Amino acid sequence: MAARKKAARRAASRRSKSSTAAVSTSSSQSSAKMRKGPRAKPSLTASNETASNGSSVTSAGSTGWTPISGEVGIRVRMYRVGFGDFFLLSLLQAAGEPLHIIVDCGVFKGTSQTGDIGSIEAAVADMIQTTRGKVALIIMTHRHADHIAGFARCAADFKKLQVGGVWMSIWESEYSPTAIKFQALLARTALGLQQHFASFGARATEEQQTARKYMENAVGETAASGGGTNDAALALLKQGFSGVTPQYYQGGDAAKLPDALANAGLTAQLLGPPPATDLALMKLMDLQKGVGQYLADVAQGNGKSFAPFGPAWEIEPFDAKKRVGPDLSPVAMREWINPRKSWGGVSVESAQKARLGFESALNDSQPVAALTAAKQLNSFLNNQSLVIHFTFKGKNLLFVGDAQAGNWEHWLFKTNDPDKVGTGTLSVDAQQILTSIDFYKVGHHGSGNATPKVVVDTMKLHTHSFASMCSTQKDVYGTEDPDDPTKGTEVPRIPLLDQLGKESALVRSDQVDITVDGKVIAAPAAANLPPAAPGYRFVTGALWVDCYL
Length: 549
Fold this sequence. Notes:
Strand content: 5-15%
Mean pLDDT: 79
Radius of gyration: 29 Å
Number of helices: 16
Structural class: alpha/beta
Number of domains: 2
Number of strands: 18
CATH class of the largest domain: Alpha Beta
C-alpha cells in the first residue's frame, strides 16, 4: 500500500512540472508576439500581427486579423526594399485564411548605387511566412528591375509557392507577334545602350550615368549568360509555376480573376497599358533610329569610331601631302568651311581646322541620339505598366505601376493619340475612379512624370480622405534644387509628394526604420505615420508598413 501511495505522489509531481513548463512556454510565445515595431527582427511565426497594433490573430495559427470600425478586411503591406516596389495585398474572407496578391517584387541601385538596401530577401521570406506559401495572384506590372529583380534573386523561394494565377502586361505576351518582335528589339537596344554608356567610364556626364542606369534597370544585373537577370525573372513568371499560364492584359480587357478571389467578392478593372496596336506607342517601335549604327559598333565591343566610306568615295584622289586626316582631302571640307561658297578653293590649314569642328559636332550628336533613345526606351517600358483598379467590399484601390503620360492619358481621356500635355476633359470613368479611391499606390516611386497634375487636381474633389503609399528611396536619382523647387530632378519629387500629402494620408517606405538580421536600416526620410482616420490606419512592422482599410 505504501509503495502504491509513493508512486502516485511521483506521478502527480511529474504532471505538475509538465503543466508549469507548458504555461512557461505559452507565456514566452505570447511575449514574443507582443514585440513589435520597426526595430524588431521579423518573427518566424506564421503571423506578425499583434494586439498592440490593433490587429489580432483570429484563430489558432491563423494569419488573419480583426478589422476595426470602418475597415472591411483589406491590408496593403508595403515592404521597404529600397528603390523598388514590393506590395502584398491581403483580403479577409468570410471564412478561412486571407487571400493574398503580390504586386511586383523588385529593387534597383540607381544612379547613386544606394537604391538596394539589402532587405528584399528578408522581405520575400516574410511574405512566404505571412501567406503560408499560398498566393492567389502574382501581378508583374512591367519588366524594369526595380519591379521584378526579386523574382530572379529569390527564384528558389518563389518556386515553393502555391500560385493561383499570374498577370502580366500585353507587351509580355507570347501570343502577340507585335509584342514578341518589339520586346526582343527593346532588349537588344537596351543592352547596346548600356554597353555604350559604360564605355565612357569616369568621363561620363551625370546625364550619361543616369541613362546607363536606365538601361541596367531595363535588362537587370548582368548574368552569367551575358544577358540580364530580368530574363530570369520573366522566365520564372512565365514558366516557373506548375499548372499556371500567365494572363496578358491591356487596358479595357475583361479581367479573369482566380476563382478564390472572385468568390471572395474582389473585382478588377484593367485601365492600362494601351493596346499593343496603339498608334502613339507604335511610333516608338524604331528605338534604334539615329543610333543604330553606333549601337552596332558598340555591340562589337571596341567602342571606337569608324569610317563608313573608304578612299574610293573621296571627292578627289587621296594626296598624303594635302591630307587633313587619314582618309580625307581638303576639298571634302569646303562645304563645312563656307556652305555659300562651296565652289571656292580650300587650303590645307582651313580644311584641317574645319575637320576638327566637324568631328566634334559628329561626336556630340551621337551621345545626344543615344541619350534620346535611352529616355524613349525607359518611358516606353514604364508605359507598358499594368494599371489596375480593384474593388473589394466597397473599397477602391488603384495600382498604377510606373505608368507615364501615354498610359495615363489613354484611360484618363479615352484617347489613342496622347499629346503628353495632359489637357482635356476627363472621361466619366476616370472621374469616378479618381474621386472615389480609398487607396492609391503612387506611380513610379514618386517621380514627377508618373502622377499627372490633372490626377492630383481631381483627387481634391474627394468627399472623404484616402490613403497613399509610395515605395521609394531618397537620393537614388536626381537632385533637389533648393533655390527653385520647380527645377529639381529628384525622385521622389518633393512638390508632388507635398501635394499628395495634402490630399491624402501619404506614407513613403523610406520614412520608417527596418531591421534585417538584427541590423537596423535607418530611414533617410524619417517621419511619423499619419494618424488613423475612419476607414484607414497605418502600422509599422519589422520590414514594412501596413495600411488597413
